[in-house]
Amino acid sequence: MFFDWSAWDRGTVNDVIIDHNIICDADVGINVRGRNSGVLLWGNRFERVKEPVTGLNDGVFMHPAARLLDLLAAEGLVPEKLMGTTAWQTALKQLESLQSQDPTSIELVNEVRNCQVDLAKTATTELHEGQSLALIQALTGMILTETSSDKLQSILSEGTGGTANTSFTVSLPAWSIPITISLSLPPLPGWQAVNPAPIKIKPGESVTTDIKLTIPSGIWGKPTIPMACKVRGTGWQLSGSGQVQLSSSSSTDLVRQWMVVGPFASDQPGVLGDTLYPPQRLLDITAEYPGSEGKVSWQPVKLSTGGSIDLIQLYGSQDNGVAFAVTVLRVSRPTTVAITTNGSYLVTYLNNEIIGGPFRRYGNFKLSVTLPEGDNVLLCGVAQTNYWWQGKSWQLSVQVESSPLSKPGDIKVIQVEKFGEVRALNHR
Are 244 and 225 in contact (CB under 8 A)? Predict the structure, then answer.
């Protein structure tokens, strides 16, 4: 019997009710990200939760008053100075009382909007300095989505620097109030940004605007950069600042600069076995090794599209085939990253120490490590596999995700042409 894995949609949730839960002491309360249809959130309560509800979309229904209250319930979001005012507490109590009313009536939606305006005016009066972007998003229900252009993704994948556009889509839920928003990306050293004009957004609308960015060489992956905004409505105006991750939904943090060597022969098909292969004994990109078909040497592989090294394309199908790939991550200060390897049976070394494997199955393997300052050598050994559901496979992809606390330029992948300058790759 053949199972069509491509037809299996793991990201869809249909016709689910999540109600009357008490969620305490968590980073995330309810995560409804994905393609949802007919999901009802009702009567849930959150205490000391950093993000009460994430991933809200058109397939998720909440009472408008409850949705605003849940957004404002995030731990540490509302300053104590604001929370303690009579006007703020009055508006919150009004929202709580509105939860018993028909959520589909226009009268109810207008009452929720009145509460929103009262909250925004109170914040304008009490908070004279700029506030967090997260607070403004909670007050308005506004969602910001960044989409890097193909050119910007290419610049970040290569780390070569350049000028390109990024787009920001600003969406307001139908129950919210109309706003005018000005977005800006405060320039970092070596960066430049051409910020857009203010845009007006009505409830239920989504508006997209472009920002032209000039990025210096050495910025790689998915950098997190500062963002500022000014949002105004009738009788109120708020300024906020926060952060945004560029190319967050792309593959710009896949490693595309490699040197590979092979094929070698395993003592049993589909696994690395107990053999200690030549690159494990002596990692030298100028060396020749005895391979399964004679002398083999390292060759450069630069992935322009996609993020996987296809070793069958390089060496042909080898039932007992093993190959090795090496890359270099240059780090300006100690940086914590998540490294995800995806491929056939594999083992991963970082700076000559095993950090993952050998794994005995195909799939994603993710681990967190702190990279020391300087050049970090990542070496992966990969065996060809032959699974009934996949056929013969011999490939490798590696993703390196940096922490939101890291700064742009903290980590980059060295261009393969520069591998010869890395001392750790030239040992004899």
Answer: yes
Q: Which domains does the chain have, with CATH numbers?
A: 11-129 (no CATH), 143-245 (2.60.40.10), 257-425 (2.60.120)
Q: How far apart are CA 47 and CA 191, in angstroms?
A: 40
Q: What is the pLDDT of residues 279-323, one digit of tens each?
A: 999 999 999 999 998 999 999 999 987 788 999 999 999 888 999
Confidence of residue 170 (pLDDT cuts 50, 70, 90): very high
Contact partners, residue 301, CB within 8 Å, separation at least 6 = 258, 259, 260, 309, 314, 325, 416
Helix axes 106-126, 133-140, angle to 10 degrees: 150
In whole numbers, what is the pLDDT of the chain averaged over residues?
89
Distance of alpha carbon 27 from alpha carbon 49, whole angstroms: 6
DSSP output for 306-356: SS-EEHHHHH---TTEEEEEEEEEEESS-EEEEEEEEESSEEEEETTEEEE
Contact 375, 359 (CB under 8 A): no
Per-residue pLDDT tens for 54-73?
Answer: 887 778 889 999 999 999 99
- For the stretch 403-412, what's the b/e string if a residue is b when 16 or more beta carbons lie within 10 angstroms of its beta carbon? eeebebbbbb
Strands 179-184 and 224-233: antiparallel
Residue 5: band (very low, low, confident or very high) from pLDDT cuts 50, 70, 90: very low
Q: How far apart are CA 209 and CA 24, in angstroms?
A: 38
Cβ(382)–Cβ(325) below 8 Å: yes
